[in-house]
């Protein structure tokens, strides 16, 4: 819990929680129930951050979780999530959860309104904080059943490309076009195709595709409705001149 307005809070090595603002979150904790909190690692436990009607609950289960990474992924929620909500899904929840899991061997995954991150991934890739940008888009998407996985992941990586804050430092970028690719490859391959479509065909196509997917009105004909061409015809145009 917060004591006054100096960013001081009590957080044991177990799981007591505190409610703080993003501004206070940038201040190093000064008091702990047992000793002094390291400036380099985040205590194990749960903290709730609130600002302007948005709430992020972060549960850290890794005693070695980086304070720098924590600050960056918290900042991504409070700066990018409102932008994505406004553009893609104004009715989506403003309250989400992050979980830092030392037993998860992947990178990150989203289930409902909870994003679980691999502690090991962040330890080995501390610059790759825009994993959070990709994952919070999945909460914004809120697609339910029957949506093409390749398009879901492609849109999330397109969002990482457009809204990411640290992609260059993380060594993350969209791949150059290759004849071996296909729009159904998902993730960055599909994201680059979508970026090309936004730049060269229809600036609102990703917004409109997202709406169709959320409303369960997406079909193969959606591409024709939005652009006058099938997705295969659009891919052929892209392959002929793939420069963004």
Automatic annotation (TrEMBL):
It comes from the Bacteria. Pfam families: BSP. PANTHER family: PLANT BASIC SECRETORY PROTEIN (BSP) FAMILY PROTEIN (PTHR33321:SF12), PTHR33321. This is Basic secretory family protein. It comes from Chitinophaga rhizophila.
């Amino acid at each position: 819990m917060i004591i006054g307005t100096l960013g001081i809070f009590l957080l044991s090595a177990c799981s007591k929680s505190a409610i703080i603002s993003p501004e206070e979150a940038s201040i190093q904790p000064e008091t702990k129930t047992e000793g002094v909190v390291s400036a380099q690692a985040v205590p194990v436990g749960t903290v709730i951050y609130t600002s302007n009607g948005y709430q992020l609950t972060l549960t850290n289960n890794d005693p070695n979780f980086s304070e720098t990474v924590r600050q960056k992924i918290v900042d991504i929620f409070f700066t990018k999530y409102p932008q994505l909500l406004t553009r893609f899904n104004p009715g989506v929840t403003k309250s989400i959860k992050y979980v830092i899991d030392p037993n998860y061997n992947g990178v990150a995954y989203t289930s409902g309104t909870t994003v679980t991150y691999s502690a090991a991934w962040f330890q080995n890739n501390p610059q790759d904080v825009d994993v959070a940008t990709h994952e919070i888009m999945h909460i914004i998407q809120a697609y339910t059943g029957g949506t093409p996985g390749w398009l879901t992941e492609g849109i999330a990586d397109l969002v990482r490309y457009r809204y990411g804050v640290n992609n260059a430092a993380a060594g993350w970028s969209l791949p150059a076009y290759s004849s071996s690719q296909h729009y159904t490859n998902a993730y960055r391959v599909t994201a680059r195709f979508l970026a090309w479509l936004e730049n060269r065909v229809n600036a609102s196509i990703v917004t409109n595709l997202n709406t169709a997917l959320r409303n369960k009105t997406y079909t193969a004909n959606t591409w024709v409705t939005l652009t006058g061409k099938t997705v295969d015809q659009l891919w052929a145009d892209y392959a002929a001149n793939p420069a963004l």
